[in-house]
Design goal:
Blueprint (H helix, E strand, L loop, with lengths): L6 E5 L2 E5 L2 E5 L8 E6 L5 E9 L3 E6 L12 E8 L1 E4 L7 E3 L15 E4 L10 E2 L2 E4 L4 H4 L4 E3 L4 E4 L5 H11 L8 E10 L1 H13 L6 E7 L4 H21 L3 E7 L1 H14 L13 H9 L3 E3 L5 E9 L8 H9 L2 E5 L1 H5 L6 E8 L2 H5 L6 H25 L6 H18 L9 H15 L10 H7 L1 H5 L1
Parallel strand pairs: 9-16, 14-19, 14-20, 15-16, 15-17, 17-19
Antiparallel strand pairs: 1-7, 2-3, 3-6, 4-5, 4-7, 5-6, 8-10, 11-18, 12-13, 18-19, 20-21
Helix pairs in contact: 2-3, 4-5, 6-7, 10-11, 10-12, 11-12
Length: about 475
C-alpha cells in the first residue's frame, strides 16, 4: 500500500509488545488514528495505527501482526496523517486484501484520490430518506421483505446454514434497475481459504466481478486487519456512490468474526469486558460502520448495507446479533427447520422484516404491498394450524384448516424455495404469489386485498 504522508518522527522506545499492540514511550505530538510504520529487527516494514494516546506514550495496533518484534530493536515511525487508500473507478472488478491492497495479480490501482478509511457516519441533517427498490432476484426478499436503496438490513444466520451461498447469490443477482449504474462491494472477514475461493469463483466465473469489488480477509490474517476490512469496503462504497453517482450494495460477512477481533483487541488493551466478553463500546463501534450507509441529499448515488451475522447456537439475543438488530432497519432470518426440509434459501418470512418495505413498494407494482400482506397472513395462519395439528391431530382439522396447511407447504416449496442460480424478476415473484393464493385459498379468505386489486390481478378473475 502506497502511503503519501511525510514521515515525522522515529522512536526506539517500545516498552511492551502485547498481542497485536505496541506501547511506545516518550512520544510527542502523536494523534489518534495516525499511521505508523514499524520496522522489525530483520528490516521488514509493517503498517500500524495509533489507537490510544497519553501524555508520554502511545498504543499502536500493528496491522500485520507483532511476531518477531521485540522491545530493544524495533523502530516505530509516526506519520502525520490517518490511514488512506488510493481510490478511482479502477477499483471495480478487483480483488483486494483486508487493507485495500490488490490481491489478484492485477496492476496497482491508479489513484485519483486518497481516502481515509475511518470515514464518518452520514450527518442526519444531510440524509435523504431511503427509497426506490433494489431487486435481489430472490422471492422471499423482493416479495416479502423488499429492500430500499440506502437501507441497512441484516442477514441473521446460524452455523451450518447456507449464508455464504445466499450472500454470493445476492452479490451476483442484485440490481437497482435496468437503467441505473449499480455496483456491489463484498467484504469477507475471517473466512477460510476455501470460502474465499468460493466467493471469488462465484463472482469471476459467473461474470459479476466486472461490477463488483471483492475484499478478502482470511481467518489466519491478523485480527487488526479484520477491523480494517469493513472500513475499507465502506470507503470504496462511499467513493463509488457519492463521487461517481453509483448505487452500491455492500455485503459484509461475517460480522461475528469482526466482533471477535474487536473483543481480542479489547482484551489485549486490558479493557473491562461487558456482555460475553465484548467491550462496552461494541454498539458504538458497530454504529460507526452501519451509519456510513444511506443517501445524501442532492447526490445521485446510494449505499445499501447487508451485514451477515452468525447467531451462536441460533441465539438471537447474542450481543452482536442483538445490537445489529437495534441499529439496522430490518432483518432477514435463515431458519434451520426450513434448511432441514431442503428449502433454499431457508428464509423464514415471519420473523423477517424490512422496515422500509412500504417506501420501496411505492416504486414497484401497486398490488405488491397488498399481496405481501395477504401472503404473510396466510402463511402465519398455516403455521398456527400446523402447530395446532400436532396437539389435536390432523383428523380434527376443518376443511378450511386443511386448505391453509396445503397453502403453507406450497408457499415454502414453490415461493420461498428457489435454486441458488435461479433469478426471479419481481413480476415473476408477484405472479407466483397470486397463483398460490388462487390455487389453495378461496377468494373470501383474501381479506387483506382491496376489491379493485383483486379485480385487476386475481388470476381467476383475469381468466374470466
Amino acid at each position: 500500500m502506497k502511503v503519501k504522508f511525510r514521515l515525522q518522527k522515529y522512536y526506539r522506545t517500545v516498552r511492551e509488545v502485547k498481542g497485536p499492540l505496541l506501547i511506545v514511550e516518550k512520544v510527542k505530538e502523536v494523534g489518534y488514528g495516525e499511521v505508523v510504520k514499524v520496522l522489525d529487527p530483520s528490516g521488514r516494514e509493517r503498517m500500524g495505527t495509533v489507537i490510544d494516546v497519553a501524555e508520554d506514550f502511545a498504543v499502536v495496533q500493528v496491522l500485520e501482526g507483532t511476531s518477531e518484534l521485540d522491545v530493544d530493536h524495533t523502530t516505530v515511525s509516526f506519520y502525520g496523517d490517518t490511514y488512506k487508500i488510493p481510490m478511482s473507478d479502477d477499483v471495480l472488478g478487483r480483488v483486494l486484501d483486508g487493507l485495500g491492497r490488490p490481491n489478484d495479480e492485477g496492476p496497482p490501482i491508479e489513484p485519483l484520490d486518497y481516502m481515509d478509511v475511518n470515514g464518518l457516519p452520514i450527518n442526519p441533517v444531510s440524509r435523504d430518506y431511503p427509497k426506490e427498490f433494489i431487486e435481489t432476484g430472490i422471492s422471499a426478499i423482493d416479495g416479502m421483505n423488499t429492500i430500499s436503496r440506502g437501507q441497512k438490513i441484516a442477514l441473521f444466520t446460524g452455523s451450518g446454514l447456507p449464508h455464504n451461498l445466499l450472500t454470493s447469490q445476492i452479490a451476483r443477482q442484485a440490481r437497482a434497475g435496468d437503467e441505473e449504474d449499480f455496483a456491489v462491494v463484498l467484504a469477507t472477514m475471517g473466512v477460510t481459504s476455501d470460502e474465499a475461493r468460493f466467493f471469488r469463483e462465484e463472482l469471476e466465473g459467473r461474470g459479476a466481478l466486472h461490477r463488483s469489488v471483492l475484499i478478502i480477509n482470511l481467518a489466519d490474517d491478523p485480527p487488526i486487519e479484520r477491523l480494517m476490512t469493513p472500513r475499507v469496503a465502506l470507503t470504496i462504497a462511499e467513493y463509488l456512490a457519492f463521487e461517481l453517482g453509483i448505487h452500491v450494495l455492500v455485503l459484509l460477512t461475517d460480522m461475528l468474526n469482526y466482533a471477535g477481533a474487536l473483543r481480542e483487541i479489547s482484551a489485549a488493551r486490558g479493557e473491562v469486558p461487558s456482555r460475553r466478553g465484548y467491550p462496552g463500546y461494541l454498539y458504538t463501534d458497530l454504529a460507526t460502520l452501519y451509519e456510513r450507509c444511506g443517501r445524501i441529499k442532492g447526490l445521485k448515488g446510494s449505499i445499501t448495507l447487508i451485514p451477515v451475522v452468525t447467531m451462536p447456537n441460533d441465539d438471537v439475543t447474542y450481543p452482536v446479533v442483538d445490537l445489529t438488530g437495534y441499529i439496522t432497519e430490518g432483518q432477514i432470518y435463515l431458519d434451520r427447520g426450513l434448511h432441514q426440509k431442503g428449502i433454499y434459501p431457508p428464509i423464514n418470512v415471519l420473523p423477517s422484516l424490512s422496515r422500509l418495505m412500504k417506501e420501496a413498494a411505492k416504486y414497484t407494482r401497486r398490488d405488491h404491498m397488498y399481496l405481501s400482506n395477504q401472503l404473510y397472513a396466510a402463511y402465519a395462519e398455516a403455521q398456527y394450524i400446523r402447530s395446532l395439528s400436532l396437539v389435536v391431530g390432523e383428523e380434527a382439522l376443518t376443511p378450511r384448516d386443511r386448505k391453509y396447511l396445503s397453502f403453507g407447504e406450497a408457499f415454502e416449496r414453490k415461493f420461498v424455495n428457489q435454486g441458488p442460480y435461479e433469478r426471479r424478476s419481481l413480476d415473476e415473484t408477484l405472479e407466483l404469489g397470486w397463483e398460490l393464493l388462487a390455487e389453495y385459498l378461496p377468494e373470501e379468505e383474501l381479506t387483506r386485498i382491496p376489491p379493485e386489486i383483486l379485480e385487476e390481478y386475481y388470476p381467476k378473475r383475469k381468466r374470466e
